Amino acid sequence: MSHYTLSRRRGGTMNSMLGNHGYHCTRRPRRSALRRVRHASGLLLGAAALALAGCHSAALTDTRPLDNAGINYDAIQQLKALEITDAEVAQIAQAKQGGFSDDGCVEIEKIFRGRGQKFDAGGAVAGLLGAGMSEDNVLAIARLGQLGFGAGELQAMRLAGLSDPIILEVARHRAESKPVLSGASLAMMRNTAMRESTLLELARLSVPDSEAAAILSSRHHGASDAEILRHFEGR
Question: Are 14 and 20 in contact (CB under 8 A)?
Fold first, then answer.
């Protein structure tokens, strides 16, 4: 069928193609154009349906493990508002069961989200708390981004009797990529009856672990805390 119809002209000259019959050509919309419009509309509706499905899926995160772990209603609602995933629910429940408070669970989730990460350190939190570290200091380590691979060493340091301030100083140096004595070296120095304040100062002075053997040797030969510190101060 032709894509043209005839319509009556009012006044003027007649279309030369049609002669003097008083009609001119008007182009009909092509069917292919209509099909393209319908196709585009279908794509938009499909995208909207997928977006709604995604929102519905996020809303279906199962938070019952949080309730079973003893987290209160208000804290669970705050965690839901952060759009936690099923994997994060399991990690938060592990941290709670390890001794973290409800407020601590919410705060540590916010810390991780603030760095664009999903919370995946429930085991590290529980381990540090079990070793005797305070909740505030666990949160401080989380803010330093040190609850990942190196968290096991921090836990071992606490179990070896090193204090929270020393552990935090080591974590701070590692977060800033500065040299610092290892947990194992600090624990060995502690076993020589070196004072807590001396160990903390050695960490603050960014003494590299390569110096550990010399420090231990000096200690075994009778060097005092003050003598060891003087060797590194002012460097």
Answer: yes
Q: Supply the DSSP symbol for 224.
A: -
CA 177 from chain centre, in angstroms, equals 20
DSSP state of 124: H
Phi, psi dihedral angles at 133 (to 5 degrees): -75, 145
pLDDT tens, position by position, 187-220: 999 999 999 999 999 999 999 999 999 999 999 9
pLDDT of residue 118: 97
Report d(CA 94, CA 218) in Å as an integer. Answer: 44
> What's the CA gap between 135 and 110, in Å, rounded?
15
Which residues are CB-neighbours of 9 under 8 A, at least 6 positions away? Answer: 15, 22, 23, 24
CA 44 to chain centre: 33
Q: How far apart are alpha carbons 130 and 124 in whole angstroms?
A: 10
Amino acid at 90: A
Q: Which of 14-18, 34-38, 51-55, 115-119 has the lowest mean pLDDT?
A: 14-18
The token pair that represents 66 in the structure block = 């949080």
Token pair recorded at residue 181 = 């004595």
Provide the pairing of β-strand 23-27 with 4-8: antiparallel
**Rounded-to-integer distance, Cα 230 and Cα 227, Å:** 5
